[in-house]
């Protein structure tokens, strides 16, 4: 937007000569300059902000709205850029833009004053509903694939309604639409919308409604505020059928859209999300029919091949069984012919079998007698051998007892061991000072070698015949 052209106010109208439009514009501009002289400071909330190199937005409070323009040279001094909902204090002048026929507040400076009331209310309600689970994905209902009838909750005069109808007519006219006419702006909008949602949910079965669209076109934050009311959010939360919300433009976000089962950017997109495309359905149906026809053809061909194979197998099986039966009859006839001579000699064979049986019993009886005689003789031989072994064992035990070392010691003999426990057999096994242990019948004697005395040569006299040997 270019800077407004200054128009010099002409003199007051005289006579009946009409003013030109430019003349009237000059009068308006002059009146504004005379009525609002010098720059003024205004506090308000930013709404509808647009950055087009220059900044364009509305400055509003609860009762009024003023159009504002801030040229790029002044906007560059504001960092970061402002956004909707911010409370600002601006300074500037009021001018009439004659080419556009608009009164604008041309800003020279801008400073932030804090958060706007609507933004604060939106943030607080969003936080409260989120904590109560209103935005949870898990509770959202799935949309029907082929709904028969859809409720459209919007104003009868809204362009959004026509968008939905046009989309339905283009995609699938068979889907029915039920208009629920409600105001979508102003103080009565929120309770009307909430009541409409409740009625659609309550009478869904009687009306055959399977889903709903809540929609309206774009607007300022104030225009869309009815969709940020708690009553609307609670009605959507309790709704028993899937609800798609498309409020304002794509950049707008309302609480109704956050609670809805699905959010769409535009009314057209909401209708497309619920209404199937007849062209796509026809294509899918045609594709399904082709696949079904191909499957039936393949099944028929397979059945025909299987029937031919089974027929051949059945005939082959019958022929094989017939041949086997014929062979069995022939075999039986041959066996019958062979059995005829045997019948003639049947009595002779029976007599031979009886004689053989009697002979076998006689042989078994004779064998039993011989086995008993042999067993008796074998038992006598074993007993005699055992008695001989026991007598030998007793004699050996008496001899071993007589020559046992303890018996020898009891007869007055002893044995001597060195300090390592080795038996001392001759004087060469020890030396002076060694400790010895001499074992006798009732114990042991400890001693130390004091000297060594070799034996003298033994006499040739015969030993005493009464002295017994050591072993």
SS elements, strand count: 13
What does the main sheet amount to?
5 strands, mixed, barrel
Strand order of the largest sheet: 1-2-3-5-4
Rg over CA atoms: 65 Å
Q: Low-confidence parts lasting 5 or more residues at pLDDT below 50?
A: 1-10, 463-471
Structural class: alpha/beta
Number of helices: 12
Q: Beta fraction of the residues?
A: 15-25%
Shape category? elongated
CATH class of the domain at 124-276: Alpha Beta
> Percent helix among the residues?
40-55%
Query: What's the CATH H-level homologous superfamily of the domain at 124-276?
Result: Succinyl-CoA synthetase domains
Report the CATH topology name of the domain at 124-276.
Rossmann fold
Note the gap between the termini: 147 Å
Q: pLDDT average, as an integer?
A: 82
Give an overview of the whole structure.
With 471 residues, this protein is of the alpha/beta class. Among the domains are: 21-115, OB fold (Dihydrolipoamide Acetyltransferase, E2P), CATH 2.40.50.140; 124-276, Succinyl-CoA synthetase domains (Rossmann fold); 405-448, no CATH class. Helix content is 46%, strand content 20%. The strands form 3 sheets. It has a 5-stranded mixed beta barrel. The protein has a 5-stranded parallel sheet with strand order 7-6-8-9-10, sandwiched between helices. The radius of gyration is 65 Å and the shape is elongated.
